[in-house]
């Protein structure tokens, strides 16, 4: 009965005070009522209530009191309070009572009232609420006891207000938001409050008190799912890592915190955590065996982060895979991951339809997994790894993309080294770069968690030997025929090198003499082998053949285009032919010098194509051409008129172009362009597109465009991405170079189908470059059609 009487007395007294504050105009009566209510607060000069009375006040009356105080924001009695009385009898109610109820009332008030002095006052109260650690008190109040008895609706509302506070305040206070409510500052403060609540929880557990982390886990999950894990974990994870290093209670608290996160938010928490935590040991101390117990986290850590996404750095992969390898219960998942990575890496469909960046990501993960295997596991999985290595290398080496081929070589070498410790190992020749070095480093042992990297002390300045010249016994040839004889008959490596170095200069210096032996010298250069490992052999040979094709264009072009489809040529030689034709056509397309005779630029003016890569300068060509045809508004001044100038390519374009289209569909014993040799097909299509682009305004451009469209239309759905890129590049080149009226006539029967195909590629192709080129082609097609249709419409209107 005493407890019941106490509840009744509290209720009567509180209701009497609320009526006075709401209705009375006497400031003295209101202040007296405020002092009476302040007696139920835990701290302050007026605190007088017992624990049971204060508990009853908090449970049944606190929220109502706050609403009454908020309703009196503009009352006369509040204006008469001194600063000390205002803090003691008004602000203290928001900062000393139950923190969850106070936060909800404050946020609801700010969200409902407009810009006014009352809103400013509530914003001040919210700032004090955050600065005085009331969020930490709220979290700790939710941790005490076995669980919170409130309703799910109230809990979701509270979580929503806490997580979305920066967004809510930005919407209400724009453009006068306060620094504390900005995302970076607020979530950093929230991380500090997480630390406070978890510290209190650990101490309570050590004292034998029951605690619940469900609300804290839900707040953590909801914060991460809304995209704020970076700000939160930046301050929180280092504290968790340090606290769990030697304290088992802290480890158990972290494990339970992660286990209590709802499944719908688990992915965001785990993904954010693995990106911030430093090392697999720290991740293991925070997560424990969550990956074994929780299916959602297992899917994210063993499948999604490794096979479906590829944006993470190598350190994230090391942390994730090292975490799986550190515990006996988690180690079977490492084997499961390895098998999935092997299947993906050795899949020909995956190699063809996934970006190069994802292939590199898969390769890094695969090598890291293999490096973590024990000897017993390695022997058990030897057959599967061998099958993965052979099948995967075949798929990668068949690709037209140089980076993918290089990835296959590096991974093959690393797997071979790991599988065959005593036997012969695979060894490929490829260009070393940062990408290949990083792949090889995946096989290195994992660094210890606390390792400190030291600077290299090998900082000696190398001696400058750039002006040194090697003494040679042979003299360079002075005539083109001497150069030809040196390349054909000489067995002296020095003479061959000097002849090769002098060939381009002699051809350009004396064009008339070069025309006498142009085809013969081109044949010798095309078949020349690097028997003596001559420095810059490929570049020198290519530059000489380009010079010959420029000086004596028709005979050399006829010879090269004929030999392209001949038997007994390697794929490398056929690609050399295409590169020479492209580079020489580019040089010929430059304007003729004003003196009336062709200008023969030096070799430095010729852009040499790396024989080991697909030429990328076609992208710049298309971009520059599109920019030149794009109309821009708002620029002051009229552009300078462009003067049409002749070039040497227009008259010989057909000799470069049409022979390459004659025999592409005739497979030979050693050459199947539409079959397995899609590497050469991709280069051929790119070359034809470049030759088409360079023939702009040439008389033969219309015929070239018609033939090129017929050719690429048949291979527009090729499975190889480089071939599809070449097709789209060629289509762009036709749209840019072919006269508009001829283009409209050519596409009249297939216009809708062409637009639909380009739209499909722009929207759904797996390769980003193909999507970009398709968009450019659509823009060019629409511009050309508008240009041709608008005059017709104007004529009809007139």
TrEMBL record:
One of its GO terms (molecular function) is Hsp90 protein binding. Keywords: Cytoplasm, Membrane, Nucleus. InterPro entries: ARM-type_fold, TEL2_C_sf, TEL2_Regulation, TELO2_ARM, Telomere_length_regulation_dom. It is found in: Cytoplasm; Membrane; Nucleus. Its main location: cytoplasm. SUPFAM superfamilies: ARM repeat. PANTHER family: TELOMERE LENGTH REGULATION PROTEIN TEL2 FAMILY MEMBER (PTHR15830), TELOMERE LENGTH REGULATION PROTEIN TEL2 HOMOLOG (PTHR15830:SF10). This is Telomere length regulation protein TEL2 homolog.
């Amino acid at each position: 009965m005493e407890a019941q009487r106490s509840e009744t007395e509290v209720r009567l007294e509180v209701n009497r005070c609320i009526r006075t504050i709401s209705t009375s105009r006497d400031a003295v009566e209101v202040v007296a009522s405020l002092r009476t209510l302040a007696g139920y607060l835990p701290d302050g000069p007026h605190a007088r209530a017992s624990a049971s009375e204060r508990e009853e006040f908090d449970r049944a009356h606190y929220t109502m009191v706050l609403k009454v105080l908020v309703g009196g924001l503009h009352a006369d009695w509040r204006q008469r309070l001194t600063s000390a009385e205002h803090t003691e009898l008004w602000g203290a109610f928001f900062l000393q009572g139950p923190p969850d109820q106070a936060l909800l009332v404050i946020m609801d008030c700010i969200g409902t009232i407009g810009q006014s002095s009352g809103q400013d006052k509530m914003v001040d109260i919210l700032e004090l609420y955050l600065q005085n650690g009331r969020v930490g008190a709220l979290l700790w109040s939710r941790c005490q006891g076995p669980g919170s008895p409130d309703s799910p609706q109230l809990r979701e509302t509270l979580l929503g207000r806490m997580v979305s506070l920066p967004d809510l305040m930005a919407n209400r206070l724009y453009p006068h938001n306060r620094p504390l409510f900005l995302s970076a500052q607020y979530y950093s403060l929230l991380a500090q409050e997480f630390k406070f609540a978890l510290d209190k929880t650990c101490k309570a557990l050590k004292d034998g008190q029951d605690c619940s982390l469900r609300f804290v886990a839900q707040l953590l999950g909801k914060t991460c799912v809304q995209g704020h894990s970076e700000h939160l974990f930046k301050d929180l994870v280092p504290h968790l890592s340090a606290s769990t290093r030697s304290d088992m209670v802290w480890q158990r608290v972290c494990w339970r915190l992660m286990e209590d996160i709802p499944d719908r938010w688990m992915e965001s928490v785990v993904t954010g955590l693995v990106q911030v935590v430093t090392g697999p040991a720290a991740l293991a101390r925070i997560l424990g065996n969550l990956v074994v117990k929780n299916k959602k986290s297992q899917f994210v850590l063993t499948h999604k982060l490794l096979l479906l996404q590829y944006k993470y750095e190598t350190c994230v992969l090391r942390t994730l895979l090292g975490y799986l390898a550190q515990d006996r219960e988690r180690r079977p998942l490492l084997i499961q991951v390895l098998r999935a990575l092997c299947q993906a890496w050795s899949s020909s469909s995956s190699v063809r339809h996934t970006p190069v960046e994802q292939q590199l990501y898969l390769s890094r993960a695969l090598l890291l997994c293999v490096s973590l295997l024990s000897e017993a596991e390695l022997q058990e999985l030897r057959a599967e790894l061998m099958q993965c290595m052979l099948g995967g290398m075949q798929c990668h080496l068949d690709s037209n993309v140089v980076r993918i081929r290089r990835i296959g070589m590096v991974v093959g070498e690393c797997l071979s080294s790991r599988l065959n410790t005593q036997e012969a190992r695979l060894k490929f020749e490829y260009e070393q770069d940062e990408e290949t070095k990083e792949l090889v480093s995946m096989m290195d042992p994992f660094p210890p968690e606390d390792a400190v990297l030291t600077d290299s002390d090998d900082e000696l300045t190398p001696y400058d030997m750039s002006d040194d010249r090697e003494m040679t016994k042979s003299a360079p040839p002075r005539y083109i025929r001497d150069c030809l004889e040196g390349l054909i008959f000489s067995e002296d490596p020095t003479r061959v090198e000097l002849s090769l170095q002098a060939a381009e200069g002699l051809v350009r210096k004396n064009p008339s003499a070069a025309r006498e032996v142009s085809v013969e010298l081109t044949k010798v250069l095309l078949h020349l082998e690097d028997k003596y490992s001559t420095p810059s052999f490929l570049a020198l040979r290519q530059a000489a053949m380009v010079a010959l094709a420029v000086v004596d264009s028709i005979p050399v072009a006829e010879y090269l285009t004929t030999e392209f489809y001949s038997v007994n040529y390697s794929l490398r030689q056929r690609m050399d032919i295409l590169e020479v034709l492209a580079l020489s056509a580019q040089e010929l397309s430059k304007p003729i010098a004003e003196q009336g005779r062709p200008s023969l630029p030096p070799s430095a003016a010729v852009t040499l194509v790396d024989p080991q890569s697909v030429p990328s300068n076609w992208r710049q060509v298309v971009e520059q051409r599109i920019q030149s045809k794009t109309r821009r508004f708002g620029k002051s001044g009229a552009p300078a008129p462009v003067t049409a100038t002749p070039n040497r390519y227009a008259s010989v374009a057909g000799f470069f172009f049409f022979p390459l289209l004659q025999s592409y569909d005739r497979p030979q014993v050693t050459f199947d362009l539409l079959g397995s040799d899609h590497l050469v097909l991709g280069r051929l299509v790119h070359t034809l597109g470049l030759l088409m682009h360079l023939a702009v305004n040439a008389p033969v451009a219309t015929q070239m465009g018609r033939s090129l469209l017929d050719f690429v239309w048949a291979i527009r759905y090729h499975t190889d991405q480089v071939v599809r890129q070449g097709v789209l590049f060629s289509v762009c080149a036709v749209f840019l170079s072919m006269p508009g009226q001829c283009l409209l006539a050519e596409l009249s029967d297939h216009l809708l189908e062409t637009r639909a195909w380009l739209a499909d590629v722009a929207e759904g192709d797996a390769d980003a470059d193909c999507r970009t080129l398709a968009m450019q082609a659509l823009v060019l097609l629409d511009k050309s059609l508008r240009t041709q249709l608008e005059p017709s419409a104007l004529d009809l209107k007139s």
